Amino acid sequence: MAIDVHIIGGGPAGCFAGIAACLQGKSVLLSEEHRRIGEPEACSGLISKSGLDSLLPHMNYAEVALNGITSAKIFSGNQEFVISPREEVAVLVSRSGLDQLAAAEFERQGGKLELGRKVTRSFASRHIIGADGPASAVADHFGFPKISSYVACMQGNFDYSCDNPHQTQVYLSAQDFPGFFGWVIPINEEQAKIGLGVSFPSHPLKYYRRFLAKLGVSSRSSHEFAAVIPTSVRKKTAMAKSGFSVLLAGDAAGQVKATTGGGIFFGAQCGFLAGKNSGNPGAYEQEWKSAYGLDLAIHGYLRSLLNIGKGEPKPILLSAAKALFFEDLLSEKGRMDRLGKMLEPSLPLSYAEIVARRLAGAR
Ligand SMILES: Cc1cc2nc3c(=O)[nH]c(=O)nc-3n(C[C@H](O)[C@H](O)[C@H](O)COP(=O)(O)OP(=O)(O)OC[C@H]3O[C@@H](n4cnc5c(N)ncnc54)[C@H](O)[C@@H]3O)c2cc1C
Question: 88 pLDDT band (50/70/90 cuts)?
Fold first, then answer.
């Protein structure tokens, strides 16, 4: 049977591209270089609950949920900043489990999965979707503009008890995590994922060892890895060239939150749009930018603001943010992914209400 769409890469972007292309009635081949989808796992697996809910029509994520996250504590210098919404905001999932669910759904929709095949130039169709991660061979082969910034990360799973097993910890320090941050994400009461990122050309290993020592972690990691995260979107994410239409999605396109490095939500959503618009580069680029371009641009802008201080906000800015009740504002109105949605017309009114409530409470 002729293949209408050839997708390279079986992560969230590739699987969701495949699901969407199948829903369009296309015959789809998805090639993944590893022998098992989702492995080796190189991700924390923290995703907003709203992001997961938006994927729900395609999968039941409860099967792969590990822990519910209700709040985040940010450490910067000697200050702490707590964002604590009333409801569970994020879910820690088994990332390999999530990818396997998505791949199973792709096959259920009639897609063909080809495992253990690395594709760099021999394509099965004229319509290609490059969902092959941050070092995309598809993007290189077709001469797409380069991604301009990356962070290098290390992470391990450790025996480590957090005071609050449902609160993530975020560490900002220009000296300890230049250009990014460190994190502790509880898996349960006794274990946590501990990791960090530093901007290129810094190497993460010495920072990682220092971070573990500072946290007093002495146990060995059960799963440790190093990986990179793109923190800028490519200037072009789709093109027609030499008789091929080529669409990039997910990390291959740089569709990642530059603030946190989270890319599951945007990768899956943009992948879905790539599958829907396979064969039509202009329509894809236009649709994903109008759906998510503003959100990603705001994440990018916030990252460049943070990077003025190499990833560490000036103490006075944090003090001001606390004094102006930004903890409450972010707790009530904050969004993990769709920052553009926060800019709704009612935001100033909500903020005024929060300030009034806090001032009344403080009196
Ligand atoms: C340390 C770390 C922690 C992270 N934590 C989070 C988090 O908590 N939440 C979050 O939302 N995001 C997180 N991310 C980011 C997230 O992992 C990525 O944004 C997400 O995986 C992007 O999905 P993708 O499908 O675009 O790419 P990938 O998941 O990288 O999938 C690409 C796939 O393509 C395959 N492939 C590559 N080249 C080829 C080839 N030539 N031929 C065939 N197959 C190929 C790869 O094997 C891989 O399976 C983290 C990243 C890192 C490094």
Answer: low
Split at pLDDT 50, 70, 90, the class of 304 is: confident
Residue nearest to atom 29 of ligand 1 (CA): 11
Classify 150-230 by CATH class.
alpha beta
Q: Given 3.40.1160.10, 3.40.50.2300, 3.30.1360.120, 3.50.50.60, which CATH number is that of 5-68+90-147+234-307?
A: 3.50.50.60
Ligand 1 contacts CB of residue 51 (under 6 A): no
Sorted by sequence, the CB contacts under 8 Å of residue 212 that are 6+ apart come out as 156, 158, 194
ipTM value for the complex: 0.99
208-228: average pLDDT: 94
pLDDT band of residue 324 (cuts 50, 70, 90) is low
**Residue 233 and residue 259: Cα distance in Å, rounded?**
13
Alpha carbon of 233 to ligand 1 centroid (Å): 15
| Mean pLDDT for all residues in the chain | 90
How far is it, in rounded angstroms, from Cα 74 to Cα 167? Answer: 10
Q: Is 251 a pocket residue for ligand 1 (Cβ < 6 Å)?
A: yes
How close is the Cα of 263 to the center of ligand 1, in Å? 8
Q: Is 83 exposed, middle or buried (0-12, 13-18, 19+ CB in 10 A)?
A: buried
Calculate what percentage of the chain has a pLDDT beyond 70: 92
Q: Looking at ligand 1, which atom is closest to the CA of residue 264?
A: 11
Residue closest by Cα to atom 10 of ligand 1: 262
Work out the average pLDDT over 92-112.
Answer: 96
Cα(311)–Cα(297) distance, rounded to whole angstroms? 17
Ligand 1 atom 16 nearest Cα? 263
The structural domains of the chain, with segments of one domain joined by +, span 5-68+90-147+234-307, 150-230, 311-335+344-362
Segment 210-223 shows an average pLDDT of 93
Task: List Cβ neighbours of 293 (8 Å cut-off, separation of 6 or more).
Answer: none
Nearest to 153 by CA among 42, 303, 58: 42
